[in-house]
Amino acid sequence: MSIEELARKNVRDLTPYQSARRLGGKGDVWLNANEFPTAVTFDLSQQTLNRYPECQPKAVIDNYAQYAGVKPEQVLVSRGADEGIELLIRAFCEPGKDAILFCPPTYGMYSVSAETFGVEYRTVPALENWQLNLQAIADKLDGVKVVYVCSPNNPTGQIINPQDLRVLLEMTRGKALVVADEAYIEFCPQATLTTWLADYPHLVVLRTLSKAFALAGLRCGFTLANEDVIALLMKVIAPYPLSTPVADIAAQALSPQGINAMRERVAQILAERQYLVTQLREIPCVEQVFDSETNYILARITASSAVFKSLWDQGIILRDQNKQPSLSGCLRITIGTRDESQRVIDALRAEKV
Q1: Which residues form the Aminotransferase class I/classII large domain (predicted)?
Q2: Which residues contact 316 (CB under 8 A, 6 or more apart)?
Q3: What pLDDT is stored for residue 6 in this prediction?
Q4: Per the count of CB atoms within 10 A, which of 96, 190, 219, 326 is most buried?
């Protein structure tokens, strides 16, 4: 029996998530991973690397609870929000029996995580405006234990209608968890669902330090939920999910000074987003620029695959969304520095399509 044959069938057949770094490229303008464009510096203060870290570092938990307006008992910290996605499937879904559900076009890790654990995933395509098709979701809920909703949605950039989310939470009460993936919520904080946790025991909110906090390389995320959910996730999380340096930097980033710095970065990104949107709408090959509540924009571009390759060859790396349902001709552009925005604008203006 070969090594390949020894592996689980669902893993043999699995197509891994194509992260920005996995896709590669040799660019000098990286606008494909929704990262903050410049580095933030921190000094490591913890030198006890000879000891294992706390499973849930108190300073990180307390600081994040204060920031998010929840109790520390409602916070779980993990290796990015991606680990939170997986922990929920591990804790709540029986392989071969239960299912998860999500609404494409959306984040690709929901399906990959489900496949990895041998759990069925069901999809309900979003409506033309990329909002939830509530009736179609209701028709597919039998056997579903976890519903993932990304808001603001990646890659489309819009907030999911709050009233639709309330309807979804009512139809799933006592049946399934609803997981609001708020990776980009710092760019539209008024849209958070954290204040709803008291009303919905089955609501879960995912957060990250990768975007507005400019710490994608740290791999630090949070799951916010009621205490019963957190207690179950604690049973399946790794013994030491955060290294001591990660916890050290995360606690600093979540200090009052760190949060103020994050909000200044958000203001910078929002201003730059407006500049880029305004410029793109004047370029002939750009057919449509969609409204965004995030640190990226989605644009429909004439001959998008050729344009994507042309910019790639010039060292400008964007994210091709052509394979996503309803996103034919679309490219996603992370908001970078003014110089990076100008590189994109000039390159697109030069395209002859």
Answers
A1: 43-348
A2: 27, 29, 31, 343, 344, 347
A3: 78
A4: 219
Angle at 101 between CA 325 and CA 108, to 5 degrees: 50
Q: E strands of the chain, at which residues?
A: 29-30, 75-78, 99-102, 120-123, 144-150, 177-181, 203-208, 221-225, 286-289, 296-301, 316-317, 319-320, 330-334
In whole angstroms, give the CA distance from residue 315 to residue 309. 10
Specify the length of the chain in residues.
353
Say how many Å lie between the first and final Cα of the chain, rounded: 52
Decide if 124 contacts 134 (C-beta within 8 A).
Answer: no
Report d(CA 310, CA 314) in Å as an integer.
7
Q: What is the largest CA-CA distance in the chain?
A: 60
110 within 8 A of 84, measured Cβ to Cβ: no
pLDDT tens string 180-216 = 999 999 999 999 999 999 999 999 999 999 999 999 9
Q: What angle do CA 167, 206, 231 make, to 5 degrees?
A: 95
